[in-house]
Design goal:
CATH superfamily of one domain: Na+/H+ antiporter like domain
Distance between the termini: 76 Å
Order of helices and strands: HHHEEHHHHHHHHHHHHHH
Strand order of the largest sheet: 1-2
Radius of gyration: 23 Å
Number of strands: 2
Largest sheet: 2 strands, antiparallel
CATH class of one domain: Mainly Alpha
CATH topology of one domain: Na+/H+ antiporter like fold
Number of helices: 17
Helix content: over 70%
Structural class: mainly alpha
Length: 433
């Protein structure tokens, strides 16, 4: 009598080691960016296929939580709900940079902060000039201001094998400041019909969140219900609900107490980052990037003033703002460019920052509530980001090839006599000019 084979469960829960491996992979920028890209491609294919009606039906399907006063479509749940998880992780990263990272001292933070501010101001100004010249709406001025850190770091990770580590640090610091600016813009300019009772309740919940952190209270059963309630109150107040996510991220402590293996912020980021990179942001992209890419829709990108202004802001505005802002700050202040970087690296970095996706799409939805206008602006964000990514790839591949050649020359010198050649080492540490 033969022993029956154990039945395999289709779509069953993966074993713990495999779940751990997947979670660890999602914590890397490359994998997270590729998952985001895959979700965007699925959305584009689905929305332009014979089954586009099913896509719209799923995106617009409503369900709610009556106890929290919520009744949202699937698209709005991803934009207002799941994206708050992304902003929670962004808030923790920003807090870490402010306390122990690149932003903790003015000297090291000066150039990336100036670059980020100029990289927001110049695209907004170019948008206003372009839209005004064409007689379009100025309401989308904030759309080209945002840099998508997940996509940008994914492109960098795929391209770069020998670029200096200072390049990534500069990009991370710039993106953190960029995220903070986008969050403030959403809170200040895209919040309307304020319900001050709900807003007061949300603020009270965040204050309680801070008190629990201040007194070192532990236990997820305190923070998760409080976080959900604060998020729901923030949504009902008229302020964009993602603000609650970043506020909680900024409140979480990022320094370790004596005897702690990791700070609360580090623990939460470690646990939540796979959810953000593998579920929250891809689902948002799935229901936000589904725009028509027919010849007519793409024609609107380069003929209508608002979409054209978005493309110019992302591609031209980011390059001019970041590069010129960094150069002028280094030229006329005491701030100095990291000696490991060359100005050609800054140009590549400025081009890479033109990839605007997650937050740019979100602001586009808020700035253009009319479906037809929103579709054109979304298409512009995708086109502008694609152009920026292609230009950045060309520039950074050239820089990476140069750094790789210098690295190989250094290794040859070391292999020859066991002593690094001082001239080659100096060339490497001073940036490939």
């Amino acid at each position: 009598m033969t022993q029956a084979r154990p039945r395999k469960t289709v779509f069953g829960l993966l074993p713990w080691p495999e779940r751990q491996a997947i979670a660890q992979a999602l914590r890397t920028e490359t994998v997270g960016g590729l998952v985001l890209l895959a979700a965007a491609l699925v959305a584009l294919v689905w929305a332009n296929s014979p089954w586009s009606g099913a896509y719209e039906a799923v995106r617009d399907f409503h369900f709610g939580i009556p106890a929290l006063g919520l009744d949202l479509s699937v698209g709005h749940w991803t934009a207002d709900g799941l994206l708050a998880v992304f902003f929670l992780v962004a808030g923790i990263e920003l807090k870490r940079e402010l306390v122990v990272g690149e932003l903790r001292t003015p000297a090291t933070a000066a150039l990336p902060v100036v670059a980020a501010l100029c990289g927001m101001a110049v695209p907004a100004a170019l948008y206003i000039l372009t839209a005004a010249a064409g007689g379009g709406s100025l309401g989308g001025w904030a759309v080209p201001m945002a840099t998508d850190i997940a996509f940008a770091l994914a492109v960098l990770a795929v391209i770069s094998t020998h670029l200096p580590s200072a390049f990534r640090a500069f990009l991370l610091t710039l993106a953190v400041v960029d995220d903070l600016g986008a969050i403030l813009i959403i809170a200040v300019f895209f919040s309307s019909d304020l319900n001050f009772w709900a807003l007061g309740g949300a603020v009270g919940g965040l204050v309680l969140f801070y008190v629990l952190q201040r007194f070192r209270v532990r236990g997820w059963w305190w923070y998760v219900p409080l976080g959900v309630a604060s998020w729901a109150l923030m949504y009902n107040s008229g302020v964009h609900a993602t603000v609650a996510g970043v506020a909680m991220g900024l409140i979480l402590r990022t320094t370790r107490d004596k005897g702690e293996a990791a700070s609360p912020g580090a623990r939460v980021a470690h646990l939540v980052h796979p959810l953000s990179a593998g579920v929250a942001v891809p689902l948002f992209a799935l229901f936000a990037a589904g725009v028509s890419v027919s010849g007519t829709a793409l024609g609107h990108v380069f003929t209508d003033p608002e979409p054209l202004a978005v493309v110019i802001g992302l591609v031209v505005g980011k390059i001019l703002g970041i590069f010129l802002g960094t150069y002028l700050a280094a030229r006329f202040t005491r701030a100095q460019l990291n000696p490991d970087l060359a100005w050609a690296d800054v140009l590549g970095l400025a081009t890479l920052a033109g990839i605007g996706f997650t937050v740019a799409l979100l602001i586009g939805e808020l700035a253009f509530p009319e479906p037809a206008e929103a579709e054109h602006v979304k298409a512009a964000v995708l086109v502008g980001s694609l152009i920026a990514a292609a230009l950045a790839a060309v520039l950074l591949l050239r820089r990476n090839h140069l750094y790789k050649r210098l690295w190989e020359e250094e290794n040859l010198d070391e292999d020859a006599d066991g002593i690094p050649d001082i001239h080659q080492t100096g060339a490497r540490s001073g940036g490939a000019r």
